[in-house]
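Q: Here's a chain of 205 amino acids. Please give me its 3D structure as tokens.
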Amino acid sequence: MNKVAFIDMEGVLVPEIWKFLAKRLDISELSITTREVEDYQKLMLYRIAVLEKHQITLPKIQSIIGQLNPIEGAKEFLQALKMKGFEIKIVSDCFHELLEGFLLQLEVPMDTVYCHRLQVDGAGYVNKVVYSRQHGKHEIIEKHPLSLGNSMAIGDAFNDFSMLEAVSHGYLFSPSKEVLGKALPAFNVVNNYQEVIDSINMKIV
């Protein structure tokens, strides 16, 4: 069985994209994330409505995101996990259309990434989300042959809980107070990459 590390993108490997957009566009409504809202599909309907209201197209979003870099040390963290024998699987509720630049910087192949897609109209406005799963991130883990005892998951928000529960070693990465308040006792709370590595060295063969 394989050792697999299932890792969220936003808040773990890259900064929160929507908060960055909110700041650059000066649209506070876009700053709400899954750290505050548990229903992701409802959140995306809200975001699409805000983008339409302010006439923000997908190409404009992509150009702004292009100014953002991965969190310092993220690439080295992934390399350290690979050195320990982990396969890296990115499980994100973000979108292929927004992540490509980050994946290149992090040297993560697209075929190891499980996220959603954005649909746009003829004018370039986002009008729909094409979801890759319906019930939660755990759906991805359930499809993989792996040793649960030697596999791990890392996330930072409500939408990561089912993924963290699906493996023996679930890491809640620098969570907000709201997220921490509803976290299961079994989750390992960590605040940086080194704490994850130190824990792996103790708990995972």
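Q: Can you summarize the key feature?
A: The chain has nine helices and seven strands.
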